Amino acid sequence: MKPVIIEKEEIIKLLDFKEIISVIEKSFIDFSEGKLVMPPPQDIVIEEFRGETHIKSAYVEGNDSYCVKIASGFYDNPKLGLNSSQGMMILLDSKTGAPKCILLEDGILTDYRTAAAGAVAAKYLARADSKNVLVIGSGIQARLQVEFLLQVFEIQRLCVWGRNEESVKNYCDYISKFNFLDLEVLTTVQDHKEIDIVITTTPARSPLLSVVEKGAHVNAVGADMPGKQELSPKLLAKAKIITDSTSQCEKSGELQHALQSGDICLKDVHAELGEIVSKTKKGRESSDEITIFDSTGLGIQDLAIAKYVYEKFINLAE
Amino acid sequence: MKPVIIEKEEIIKLLDFKEIISVIEKSFIDFSEGKLVMPPPQDIVIEEFRGETHIKSAYVEGNDSYCVKIASGFYDNPKLGLNSSQGMMILLDSKTGAPKCILLEDGILTDYRTAAAGAVAAKYLARADSKNVLVIGSGIQARLQVEFLLQVFEIQRLCVWGRNEESVKNYCDYISKFNFLDLEVLTTVQDHKEIDIVITTTPARSPLLSVVEKGAHVNAVGADMPGKQELSPKLLAKAKIITDSTSQCEKSGELQHALQSGDICLKDVHAELGEIVSKTKKGRESSDEITIFDSTGLGIQDLAIAKYVYEKFINLAE
């Protein structure tokens, strides 16, 4: 049996926001309850060309497929007219190891599953009446996080802050297709008022956000490797902290900094998101508390979205 | 640019023994002289189905491609009429990370590059007049090692020993196509006489071979992970030891056992094969000495053979 090969253009046509949220929501339960195989990532760093490739793999016991993801970031690619993100996902048959499907996705499935995880977190952690959103950053993740959030909340006002003026302008042009949104560009991050949900999506390596209002929820998406940081440890100290994987966030997420500075300790982490989705632990308990979702990205989310695309492709082909 | 996809049947048609020996010979020099990126393998073990997947990657500075290999062994596959070996190699562009080629090779390129490494080792280490060969094991590697060796030596007599009678019979049927070979099946390994080159190719976990004659060369191919062993440490103590990678052989090759038992210490290792190929160190120095090549398999060999197949495919297509 030769593997099915699905190209990026075909993959994009198959993606449905609501379906992906549901698939990723389920993957958080699998992560908390299932018997997993998720080896540490393999990293190939090509210094001469400012490139890096990370290989993440995941298997959930009982699942008919497992996933290997090759995801690269080559930071000089835009000069060549190419995306920085490159890569593919490969589904393998759990019983035989035979390749079932190669998804030539160039990193977009990582973008989608990350944004969907943000929507799942907000669904369980933000106030149900949330309507004012602040997004920090103006790249692909800043777009997708908002598009996924729109599936869950009736957002009315969207504030955006970004370092690069042209990129913020492009962001606004793109977002203007949601003409019901009251769009506002902030000159400084701290300028924001009456914000219910904050989403941080930058590759920053020092805090951009130190204060949010009572009752706000924060999706901290940017920090996903050692050294990256968007939130002040003081903000974490005031909040109820939920992680995608506490052990991974300790090394790669916002947790790394707040733990190191001593502003929090490990027992201050309230839960992993899967425990809240599966109702093992409580989510938001009052309209006053600040909640933070520390998101670093899990191999099991890659498995979930790869399998979703593959099965949808096969069903449509039949 | 979409990656080129090459299927197993097409790959097999492209493989030329002499060319592969030359490509692998060069890769040993790259290994000893080049600036390499070869991260530790990523291992995914799926216990329920007796399966394991190992991901090996390699990049050599200045090379226009780097390689990711997904190689699986699922030991119940033969019951399903499938090969135990499954997998693929992926070539990525060193400047951009973009996938250039996917080789759906099901593990055969690993088989070929391993056998070619044996021929390279024998070329530099066995006596030039070698004509009597003993092969231990009767699987695919026992076939290919002999086929590659035939490119380098005028073998006249081939002795074979294997645990499984039927498999040895199939081996002899296959090898009988080389009708100039005087073929002999041994009932015990120690039975052999006047053997110039010994090749061990089994998955054994305790010594099968403890004695060889003066002047013999041994290709120790089977031991390629912790726990595997085909040679007695006493035999290593009597021999000039050459490895593919000393640091890897310490963990996964015959070295692990001989070091642990104290029969040798690390300074007894004479050289890595690349140092001999590049003439930095001497190979065989007398017709009396016993030489042993401890082969564990290198990611750089995967890169070399994947690149060879890809370039040959592209050149033929043009």
Q: Mind explaining what this structure looks like?
A:
The structure is a homodimer of 318-residue chains. The first copy, chain A, is built from ten helices and 17 strands. With 318 residues, the first copy, chain A, is an alpha/beta fold. Chain A has two domains: 4-109 and 300-317, ornithine cyclodeaminase, domain 1; 115-297, NAD(P)-binding Rossmann-like Domain (Rossmann fold). In chain A, the strands form three sheets. In chain A, strands 10-9-8-11-13-17-15-16 form an eight-stranded parallel sheet. In chain A, strands 1, 2, 3, 4, 5, 6 and 7 form a seven-stranded mixed sheet that branches. In chain A, β6 (85-93) and β7 form a beta hairpin. In chain A, α2 (17-33) packs across α3.
Q: How many distinct folded domains of chain A?
A: 2
Mean pLDDT of chain A: 95
Beta content of chain A: 25-35%
Largest sheet of chain A: 8 strands, parallel
User: What oligomeric arrangement do these chains adopt?
Assistant: homodimer
Q: What is the 3D shape of chain A?
A: globular
* Structural class designation of chain A: alpha/beta
Q: Which spans of chain A of ≥5 residues are poorly predicted at pLDDT below 50?
A: none
CA-based gyration radius of chain A: 19 Å
What's the count of strands of chain A? 17
Alpha plus pi helix count of chain A: 10
Task: Label the CATH architecture of the largest domain in chain A.
Answer: 3-Layer(aba) Sandwich
Distance between the termini of chain A: 17 Å
CATH superfamily of the largest domain in chain A: NAD(P)-binding Rossmann-like Domain
